[in-house]
Design a protein that fits this description.
Layout lengths: L2 H20 L9 E6 L2 E2 L3 E3 L5 E2 L1 H13 L2 E6 L2 H9 L5 E7 L2 H4 L2 E3 L4 E3 L1 E6 L14 E5 L3 H5 L6 E5 L2 H9 L5 E5 H10 L7 E4 L6 E8 L3 H17 L1 H8 L4
Parallel strand pairs: 1-5, 1-6, 10-11, 10-12
Antiparallel strand pairs: 2-3, 3-4, 6-14, 7-14, 8-14, 9-12, 9-13
Helix pairs in contact: 2-8
Length: 251
């Protein structure tokens, strides 16, 4: 057996083992509900300067679990695979600034909303762009597969797709694109709180969409969905939900 065949066999066994491990949901073996998050969207989820996973949803998920007496935790998963992993049962839910859309409702279920936002345009301070209406023919960066990406379907722009919105913003700073489009909450964090871009960026105009953010679970997983909604309701009642939003500067 040559080395290539041997490596392929080892990889196949590993993939089969992983499939068996996650089949039926990540929580069944150890009683822990696992939620995927793409940690590139401050203040919802990001990796801090010490390499720690943190943010609003990263702290929200364990708190929901505490309020309903179960353990819930978050793992960092790349956005481009996050919904496929949910469908395949590699984890129990997705808590990653997920916008509720009619298309997504066909393949997953959503909790009660945890935030409201819209899509906005980010530009450099010296840009002449004042709103989404000024983007015609412009090079516009988005994170691929997000609602910011989808929101540009009806606009005549030269869309540039990136794995992370931070990469798009850096490319704009470098002069390679003219604007970026992303969630208003994420935009506020980049424009107002990110020291690396202090004084360099602004939001051009008002949000041009209206969206609800919620936690996603597998279609038909009513047991977990009920636990999440019960936990959110309990947090609303005792004030801990509003305290957490205030901590992360969410309105």
């Amino acid at each position: 057996m040559n080395m290539i065949k041997k490596a392929a066999m080892i990889l196949g066994v590993a993939l089969l083992s992983a499939t068996a491990l996650f089949a039926g949901g990540a929580s069944e073996d150890d009683g822990v509900y696992v939620f995927a998050t793409d940690a590139t969207w401050p203040p919802f989820e990001f990796v801090d300067e010490n390499g720690n996973l943190t943010g609003f949803e990263v702290e929200l998920i364990p708190l929901i679990g505490e309020h309903v007496g179960v353990e819930m935790q978050v793992e960092n998963i790349a956005w481009e695979t996050i919904f496929a992993g949910l469908a395949n049962g590699q984890y129990d839910g997705v808590a990653s600034g997920v916008t509720v859309t009619e298309e997504r409702k066909l393949t997953m279920d959503f909790s009660t909303p945890i935030a409201n936002q819209g899509q906005v345009v980010i530009v450099t301070n010296d840009s002449p762009i004042q709103s989404v209406d000024d983007l015609a023919g412009k090079r516009v960066g988005v994170q691929i597969g997000t609602t910011g990406d989808f929101a540009l379907d009806s606009y005549d722009v030269d869309r540039r797709q990136y794995d992370e919105i931070g990469l798009a913003i850096q490319d704009m700073i470098n002069g390679n694109i003219d604007a970026c489009v992303c969630d208003s909450i994420i935009a506020s964090d980049f424009v107002l709180a990110n020291e690396a871009y202090k004084g360099q960026l602004r939001v051009a105009g008002e949000p041009f969409t209206t969206e609800e953010i919620a936690i996603a679970v597998q279609k038909g997983n009513t047991e977990l969905l009920d636990l999440i909604n019960q936990g959110l309701a309990a947090m609303q009642e005792d004030g801990s939900f509003d305290e957490l939003k205030a901590k992360w500067n969410l309105l």
